[in-house]
Amino acid sequence: MTRRVVITGIAVIAPGTPGTKPFWERVIAGTPPTRTITRFDPSPFRSRIAAECDFDPKEAGLTPQEIRRMDRAAQFAVVTAREALTDSGLDTHGIPHERTGVSIGTAVGCTTKLDEEYNVLSNGGSTWVVDPHYAPPHMFDYFIPSSIAAEVARTTQAAGPAAVISAGCTSGLDSIGHACDLIREGTTDIMISGGTEAPLSPITLACFDAIKATSNRNDDPEHAMRPFDRTRNGFVLGEGAATLILEERTHALRRGARIYAEILAHATRSNAHHMTGLRPDGAEMADAITAVLTEARLHPADIDWVNAHGTGTRQNDRHETAALKRALGPHAYHTPVSSIKPVTGHSLGAIGSIEIAACALALTHHTIPPTANLTEPDPELDLDYVPHHARTHPLHTVLSLGSGFGGFQSAVLLAGTGENTP
């Protein structure tokens, strides 16, 4: 018997007010919280804006020891894991520990603490040979991204497989795909899965400044990120996390769980082409889309909405549009496509999981989020990108896409409750 995977718990920390409800309300309203960076002095940088989370670890329930020990990305992951378990109706005492695993996606791991501590160790970069006596006792955890999965496993008492999936900006999708594989093969019944990222640090800004991938509309932060718009000039860096409780469907039904959505399929491909460049025909992303449709035994016409990667860079939006036309054929012109990134910012390895949370909520509420800030259509891009306003629309099956440095292209297909049931 095929083991099916459903989402029974959701927790999100996104830019602006933390929490799943404020996140969904902001996404549907298309209201970006982007602002000038407040976490450090951004004045030396080309792009000085970001989508910051108004997150207080103490208010979120973390202890002083946890706050001191964990990087901000790990704090996001732990808090959302606890909240997602609560949302699912499970708790740390009620889960089958050996049958519960952890799969977390992140692109840059504990960058914030690494940056801060190296600044101390090197006296602001003036000393090449550092004195290890100045290093904090948890420095090793900041170097090893798997420490994030270990923190989540510890706080949830999940004693099954625990891993960090790091595949650039597709990490948040691929961590969920990995979790689904473990459930389907019978290794686990429950997976605590998602993505987390807290990349807002000087080193991250410097890296994206160097390749001019981020928008420099510093005088208009809220309207800086403009996917599919003729005037787009890059993305806005963001931070945040989303954790989903994934369960084997029979296990969830047996305990009377609320089911947000079913994850039908996941696929990932590499373009084997360039670290940051994309082939204009979108062949590899199209192949990932075709793969999930084939696995789910569905057709292009079955897709009701596409949650686009939609970063607002010149090449990404062309690449993604080409991939959709290649994979969906004529149906691409009849399928709503939108990006929530103007509202969330681009939180690298976390964004895929944040967007899967949005897909599950869209299926629940039968509402398609808008592409905020899309004011001037680009004549090269001729699909339905849902500008400005959300749409109420029957949703049965949705597709979420991701594209990452290294040439990674990933797709996840979800269905609403009641769909694809025997």
How would you portray this structure in words?
The radius of gyration is 20 Å and the shape is globular. The chain starts with a strand and ends in a 6-residue tail after the last strand. Strand 13 and strand 14 form a beta hairpin. The protein has 2 domains: 5-254, Thiolase/Chalcone synthase (Peroxisomal Thiolase, Chain A, domain 1); 263-416, 3-Layer(aba) Sandwich (Peroxisomal Thiolase, Chain A, domain 1). Helices cover 33% and strands 18% of the residues. A 10-stranded mixed β-sheet has the order 5-4-6-7-1-8-14-13-9-10, with helices on both faces. Helix 3 (72-88) runs parallel beside helix 6, helix 7 crosses helix 13 (351-365) and helix 10 (283-296) packs across helix 11 (314-328). The chain is α/β, with parallel strands linked by helices and 422 residues long.
Short descriptors:
10-stranded mixed β-sheet; two-stranded antiparallel sheet; 422 residues; Peroxisomal Thiolase, Chain A, domain 1; alpha/beta; globular; 14 strands; single chain
